[in-house]
Design a protein that fits this description.
- By secondary structure, the protein is of the alpha/beta class.
- The model has no long low-confidence stretch (mean pLDDT 91).
- The strands form 2 sheets. Strands 1, 4, 5, 6, 7, 8, 9, 10 and 11 form a 9-stranded mixed beta sheet that branches. A two-stranded antiparallel sheet has the order 2-3.
- The protein has helices at 29-40, 53-61, 76-84, 107-118, 169-175, 187-195, 200-205, 210-214, 234-248; strands at residues 3-9, 23-24, 27-28, 45-50, 66-68, 94-97, 124-130, 143-146, 152-156, 177-186, 219-223.
Length: 253
């Protein structure tokens, strides 16, 4: 099945204002993310989905495929679904959602999420990495626990699995994984996801992936060795600028 990668880019971020247009190595962040996804070659086509004419204009000026979506979508998943439903993209069988603030997204994470769907393990694929001990208790780090079949049992901001006996701490660290926010979906799974109302679990944890999980839609989790986080703050952006050239100069022109 052919893969359409959609990069949602909302201009009104709270923690880092005008995030898609902030500069990373001299180019807007959204352009760098597009370049990264294109260079990795996991998808057959890459398109930016934005809610704002400014982002649209920046992409068009650089020849980046872009769609202006509705501006009232509650999540990036809804924005991705709007783009995927357009007639010109109807021939793509798998939709890959890559967050617009991840210029260092790894090949392993994208390929792993897509493989979950193409191999028939689950209609939704995502990825996870080993979690640092220091991050287990942080509510800013999303944790996931998988079953033996590779499917997600639960996502949480809490430290899961919980350690009742301190002697089991080593076992906890072996089982816990940090979720990487990339998703691959079949068309049917994506439409089902956005068709359901937000679930109470989702609203409590503020994790939208709990919506399909609560409805019984399986999410396969690819276990990958490492992945970079997104850019959420001024400090993140500063660090990204410092390392961009050394990490990606061989993959981007």
């Amino acid at each position: 099945m052919s893969v359409l990668a959609v990069i949602p880019a909302r201009l009104g971020a709270q923690r880092l204002p005008r995030k898609p247009l902030r500069l990373l190595a001299g180019e807007p962040l959204i352009i760098r993310v597009y370049q990264r996804v294109l260079a990795l070659g996991i998808s057959d086509h890459v398109v930016v989905a934005t809610d704002h004419p400014e982002v649209l204009a920046v992409c068009e000026a650089r020849g980046v495929p872009v769609v202006l979506t509705r501006d009232d979508h509650p999540s990036g998943t809804d924005r991705v679904a709007e783009v995927a439903a357009r007639p010109e993209f109807a021939h793509f069988g798998i939709i890959l959602n890559v967050q617009g603030d991840e210029p260092f997204v790894s090949r392993e994470a994208l390929a792993g999420a897509v493989a979950i769907v193409t191999d028939g393990l689950a209609p939704i694929g995502t990825a996870a990495v080993p979690i640092p001990v220091s991050a287990l208790a942080s509510p800013d780090v999303v944790k996931v626990v998988r079953g033996d079949d590779g499917r997600a049992l639960y996502f949480s901001r809490a430290p899961v699995p919980y350690v009742r006996d301190p002697a089991d701490t080593v076992a906890q660290q072996a089982l816990a994984r940090q979720h990487v926010g990339v998703y691959a979906y079949t068309r049917a799974a994506l439409q089902a996801w956005v068709g359901w109302a937000p679930h109470p679990l989702e609203l409590v944890e503020r994790l939208e992936q709990l919506r399909p999980l609560a409805h019984g839609l399986a999410i396969g989790v690819a276990d990958v060795p490492a992945a970079e986080g997104g850019i959420d703050t001024e400090d993140d952006l500063e660090r990204a600028n410092l390392r961009w050239n050394t990490l990606l100069s061989n993959t981007l022109s």
